[in-house]
């Protein structure tokens, strides 16, 4: 890169943005952050995934003299990152354990000769004296500490090697440092500052909102069918991630999707390394692959065009949910975060915590994380507002989550809760046998099943007092009581037991409000998704006339990416293809004004793109000159069931007095 001789300023940064990256303006706080680092100051950047963190260190590295050193734990991604930069005409390299000594030496030579704009380094390499001496001998323009939350010891991605990064400032006090992360909590923020010695850095905390992600949490009934329906009706031909809790369910789900004709691959830590790597590579490189994975998959997956993230099991915390769903829609295009959630999830997660290693305090902390996640699932308010609140930020109802799109109703479930808790109390009194939700619901609905008859449960005073609710609704009541800790589960068979707070409800001193159960939701956004019916997804706001052009460009991109051995998005992002398909540039000069097309890509692809446009009759073939010129859903579904959710009589339909719930103390 030709660098100006005079001291760098912001106009250089803007010029690099146009010329190299092909973007017209900075986003959010990018400009301020870049100014801070270009000027030699330290910065701490908290910005959500997809917010545009990379430019915050890449542009200063291009503007300042010397090489920007990027410390990243994501060794497997370095090659792709370097490829993407090379495609932009940026001189980049990496040093990590996957290289042989010759490859490493070549990169070191390039660095010493000041022929690199950016050098990616694994943190463990930086600890070695030889690497430190290498850096001393070259010219370092800045240190970028990517995934900076890895320094947080209590966080989920802790890397011991990150602790050593505190020495950067001592050894190279004049070199500016920029630490970046998408992990939002206050605690992590504070730990990064302390451990990296960033007290004097400027802090840039962006909003953690991801407006392009549509959050939806649906009642779980048949998760495999539900996710298939989601893919078919809204995301045919799209890349997506399906998260499952266990390796076994990963395998099962992937096999099911493949059988149903979806291009799906599995990913979990128990697979042999080669298959796993191959599956990851397919997901990253090819268009429209669905990866079914445990949460081991994903950190640093910076594929920009993941169109949906589906959770078939409940995440353990709101942080986890936010990180995982955040892998959707990094490119800013519409994306879906869909979670199927049911009674079994609550039971399972509570059991996992019960059986987890560690002391009582640890279990309590896990319990609190789960409670926050459950509250997000059961809320009747905007999901996004609740999510942002969790991270200490405020928001207004978003219009792009299931509760905003189909407002959820709440109902007074006090009487229903009393019925259910009374039944559990009665069964507990028997002390002979332990019973789960199934038996309790059968009793409430007055079902004379073999098991009900065997234990004389049809003789209980609560037998049949709950016939006004269906089974799914009763399961919803159990789930929400569990979520509110008004009920608990015990043992391997999910025995329902009362909690200390149950007495409040039974004694009529506390009322219970619940989210009304909806019928299992069908597709939410009928208008979006595949309009072409050919399996390839067409972006929502693309005019119909531009559809065939977009698809032709996508085919050209797939072919080009394959030839060059790079992921499709390294050639062009979807947004760029869409802009081309809508604007139909007739000349290379015009093409150069499309977002995401800088000088290097224009030189490389103008001929291919203009040729493709001409081939599908979108432009005048004679205009397709090769010489490039430099250029500067509606909600989660159907209405609530017609059945009244709870009786609204003044008189409870069963004799509460007769049940005479004794005070809590007597029940133990
Ligand atoms: P992060 O690392 O924060 O997850 P990235 O740096 O990968 O995000 O950027 C996300 C997407 O936004 C990328 O596709 C990137 O090219 C694009 N992008 C970043 N900054 C701009 C900008 N100023 N104008 C247009 N697109 C941008
Ligand atoms: Zn909302």
UniProtKB/TrEMBL annotation:
<dbReference type="InterPro" id="IPR001650">
    <property type="entry name" value="Helicase_C-like"/>
</dbReference>
<keyword id="KW-0227">DNA damage</keyword>
<dbReference type="Pfam" id="PF09382">
    <property type="entry name" value="RQC"/>
</dbReference>
<dbReference type="Pfam" id="PF00270">
    <property type="entry name" value="DEAD"/>
</dbReference>
<dbReference type="InterPro" id="IPR010997">
    <property type="entry name" value="HRDC-like_sf"/>
</dbReference>
<feature type="domain" description="Helicase ATP-binding">
    <location>
        <begin position="34"/>
        <end position="202"/>
    </location>
</feature>
<dbReference type="InterPro" id="IPR011545">
    <property type="entry name" value="DEAD/DEAH_box_helicase_dom"/>
</dbReference>
<keyword id="KW-0234">DNA repair</keyword>
<keyword id="KW-0862">Zinc</keyword>
<dbReference type="Pfam" id="PF00271">
    <property type="entry name" value="Helicase_C"/>
</dbReference>
<dbReference type="Pfam" id="PF00570">
    <property type="entry name" value="HRDC"/>
</dbReference>
<dbReference type="InterPro" id="IPR027417">
    <property type="entry name" value="P-loop_NTPase"/>
</dbReference>
<feature type="compositionally biased region" description="Basic and acidic residues">
    <location>
        <begin position="514"/>
        <end position="529"/>
    </location>
</feature>
<keyword id="KW-0378">Hydrolase</keyword>
<keyword id="KW-0233">DNA recombination</keyword>
<dbReference type="GO" id="GO:0016787">
    <property type="term" value="F:hydrolase activity"/>
</dbReference>
<feature type="domain" description="HRDC">
    <location>
        <begin position="543"/>
        <end position="623"/>
    </location>
</feature>
<feature type="compositionally biased region" description="Acidic residues">
    <location>
        <begin position="647"/>
        <end position="658"/>
    </location>
</feature>
<keyword id="KW-0547">Nucleotide-binding</keyword>
<keyword id="KW-0479">Metal-binding</keyword>
<dbReference type="InterPro" id="IPR014001">
    <property type="entry name" value="Helicase_ATP-bd"/>
</dbReference>
<dbReference type="InterPro" id="IPR004589">
    <property type="entry name" value="DNA_helicase_ATP-dep_RecQ"/>
</dbReference>
<dbReference type="InterPro" id="IPR018982">
    <property type="entry name" value="RQC_domain"/>
</dbReference>
<dbReference type="InterPro" id="IPR002121">
    <property type="entry name" value="HRDC_dom"/>
</dbReference>
<dbReference type="InterPro" id="IPR044876">
    <property type="entry name" value="HRDC_dom_sf"/>
</dbReference>
<dbReference type="InterPro" id="IPR036388">
    <property type="entry name" value="WH-like_DNA-bd_sf"/>
</dbReference>
<feature type="region of interest" description="Disordered">
    <location>
        <begin position="509"/>
        <end position="538"/>
    </location>
</feature>
<keyword id="KW-0067">ATP-binding</keyword>
<comment type="similarity">
    <text>Belongs to the helicase family. RecQ subfamily.</text>
</comment>
<protein>
    <recommendedName>
        <fullName>DNA helicase RecQ</fullName>
        <ecNumber>5.6.2.4</ecNumber>
    </recommendedName>
</protein>
<keyword id="KW-0413">Isomerase</keyword>
<dbReference type="InterPro" id="IPR006293">
    <property type="entry name" value="DNA_helicase_ATP-dep_RecQ_bac"/>
</dbReference>
<feature type="region of interest" description="Disordered">
    <location>
        <begin position="622"/>
        <end position="668"/>
    </location>
</feature>
<keyword id="KW-0347">Helicase</keyword>
<feature type="domain" description="Helicase C-terminal">
    <location>
        <begin position="223"/>
        <end position="374"/>
    </location>
</feature>
<dbReference type="InterPro" id="IPR032284">
    <property type="entry name" value="RecQ_Zn-bd"/>
</dbReference>
<dbReference type="Pfam" id="PF16124">
    <property type="entry name" value="RecQ_Zn_bind"/>
</dbReference>
<dbReference type="GO" id="GO:0003678">
    <property type="term" value="F:DNA helicase activity"/>
</dbReference>
<keyword id="KW-0238">DNA-binding</keyword>
């Amino acid at each position: 890169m030709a660098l100006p001789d005079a001291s760098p300023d912001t106009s250089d940064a803007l010029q690099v943005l146009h010329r190299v990256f092909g973007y017209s303006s900075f986003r959010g706080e990018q400009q301020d952050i870049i100014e801070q680092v270009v000027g030699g100051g330290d910065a701490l950047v908290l910005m959500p995934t997809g917010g545009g963190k990379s430019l915050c260190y890449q542009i200063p590295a291009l503007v300042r003299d010397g090489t920007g050193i990027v410390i990243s734990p994501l060794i497997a991604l370095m090659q792709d990152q370097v490829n993407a930069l090379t495609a932009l005409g940026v001189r980049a390299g990496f040093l990590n354990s996957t290289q042989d000594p010759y490859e490493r030496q070549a990169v070191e030579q390039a660095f010493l000769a000041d022929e690199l704009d950016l050098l990616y380094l694994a943190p463990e390499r930086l600890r070695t004296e030889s690497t430190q001496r290498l850096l001393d001998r070259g010219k370092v323009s800045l240190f970028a500490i990517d995934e900076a939350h890895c320094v947080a010891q209590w966080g989920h991605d802790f890397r011991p090697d990150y602790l050593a990064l505190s020495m950067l400032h001592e050894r190279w006090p004049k070199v500016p440092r920029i630490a970046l992360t998408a992990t939002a909590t206050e605690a992590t923020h504070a730990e990064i500052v302390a451990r990296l010695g960033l007290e004097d850095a400027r802090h840039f905390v962006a909003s953690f909102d991801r407006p392009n992600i549509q959050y939806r949490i649906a009642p779980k009934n048949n998760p495999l069918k539900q996710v298939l329906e989601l893919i078919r009706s809204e995301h045919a031909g799209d890349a997506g991630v399906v998260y499952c809790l266990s390796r076994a369910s990963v395998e099962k789900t992937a096999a099911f999707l493949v059988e149903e004709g979806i291009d799906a691959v599995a990913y979990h830590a128990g697979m042999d390394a080669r298959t796993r790597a191959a599956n990851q590579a397919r997901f990253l490189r090819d268009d429209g692959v669905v990866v079914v994975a445990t949460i081991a998959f994903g950190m640093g997956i910076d594929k920009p065009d993941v169109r949906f993230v589906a959770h078939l099991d409940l995440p353990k915390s709101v942080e986890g949910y936010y990180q995982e769903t955040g892998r959707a829609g990094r490119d800013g295009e519409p994306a879906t975060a869909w979670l199927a959630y049911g009674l079994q999830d609550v039971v399972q997660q509570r059991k996992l915590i019960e059986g987890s290693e560690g002391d009582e305090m640890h279990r309590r902390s896990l319990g609190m994380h789960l409670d926050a996640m459950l509250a997000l699932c059961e809320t009747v308010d905007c999901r996004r507002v609740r999510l942002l609140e969790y991270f200490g930020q405020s928001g207004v109802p978003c219009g792009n989550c299931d509760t905003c799109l189909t407002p959820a109703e709440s109902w007074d479930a006090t009487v229903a809760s009393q019925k259910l808790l009374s039944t559990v109390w009665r069964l507990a009194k028997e002390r002979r046998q332990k019973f789960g939700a199934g038996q309790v619901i059968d009793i409430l609905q007055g079902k004379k099943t073999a098991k009900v008859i065997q234990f004389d449960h049809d003789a209980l005073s609560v037998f049949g007092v709950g016939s006004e609710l269906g089974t799914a609704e009763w399961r919803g009541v159990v789930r929400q009581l569990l979520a509110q800790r008004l009920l608990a589960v015990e043992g391997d068979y999910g025995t329902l037991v009362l909690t200390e707070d149950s007495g409040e409800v039974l004694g009529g001193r506390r009322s219970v409000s619940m989210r009304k159960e909806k019928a299992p939701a069908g597709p939410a956004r009928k208008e979006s998704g595949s309009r072409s019916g050919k399996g390839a997804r067409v972006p929502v706001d693309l005019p119909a006339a531009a559809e065939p052009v977009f698809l032709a460009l996508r085919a050209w991109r797939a072919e080009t990416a394959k030839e060059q051995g790079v992921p499709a998005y390294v050639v062009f992002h979807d947004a760029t293809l869409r802009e081309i398909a809508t604007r139909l540039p007739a000349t290379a000069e015009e093409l150069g004004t499309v977002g995401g097309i800088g000088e290097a890509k224009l030189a490389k692809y103008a001929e291919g793109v203009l040729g493709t446009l001409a081939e599908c009759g979108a432009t005048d073939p004679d205009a397709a000159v090769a010489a490039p010129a430099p250029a500067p859903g509606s909600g989660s579904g159907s209405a609530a069931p017609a059945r009244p959710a709870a009786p609204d009589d003044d008189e409870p339909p069963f004799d509460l007095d007769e049940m005479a719930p004794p005070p809590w103390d007597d029940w133990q």
